[in-house]
Amino acid sequence: MIDGLPLVDAHVHAARLPSLKAAWRDWAVEFSRGRPFAELYDEQGSLVPPRLDALFAQQGVDVALLFCEYSPKVTGIQPIEDLLPIVRHNPRRFRLVAGLNPHFHHPLVAELDRQVELGAVALKLHPVHGGFPPTERSLYPVYARCAELGLPVVFHCGTSSFPGSVNRYADPGLIDQVLGDIPGLTVVLAHGGRGWFYDAAAFLTLTHERVYIELSGLPPQRLAHYYARHDLHRLARRFIFGTDWPGVPGIAANARAVTRLDLDADTLALVLAGNAARVYRGVSLPG
User: Fold this and answer.
1) What CATH number does the domain containing 119 carry?
2) In sequence order, what are the residues at sequence separation of 6 or more whose Cβ sits closer than 8 angstroms to the Cβ of residue 90?
3) Is 1 part of any domain?
4) pLDDT category, 189, cuts 50, 70, 90?
């Protein structure tokens, strides 16, 4: 908990270092503002579960959602199997998020089901790094399966500076088409339209009851500026807290910055944990 409030970090990259390209490591160092995280790893470049668990406990995180990623051309392969030891160490704190890339996985629905069997509580798609549009037709059976299972789909929705990124695929307008085609699908916009898509992400969220904005990579003190054309208090009721760890100065620091946004108590509770518990199946809060 953070200052007596439950806290869910809905966007964590707990990757093995040998599976990643150098640009990922440079990003982690730059955006963590030099905070060391090497001591969390063993000599083989794997995270040591007790060390990671202790860090997230110290930062007040009750539940952390761990992301895998299959983007071999941009950041590398972060397979879901690498996350299993962390979840086994503390399944109350750590939960899995599945990942798919239509250029990498086949058949897609079978792979989704396999990762759900491993315990995934959501599906993350990264069109910008994976090089595919959200409207890729081969993904539609996946969307239908997610709607059937009540599994939310998290889209990377914002620009990326990694070499090889295809930023036009971050356009929320593409996701709007998916929502129209797949009734009942729950969607989370990771990074909230970062770059030049903030207004589109906000509009999509406010016009679709099953769409949420996840705050990873967004300095909380800048949210009023990013969404200046919108009612921040209304929009915040659809916010989900996330950090993009390790590319963040501190989880607790970001959470406390959210508490300074002048939100009412009910909305603040939704942002820090309540919406995540509502959206991600199987995520329960303390108390």
Assistant:
1) 3.20.20.140
2) 49, 53
3) no
4) very high
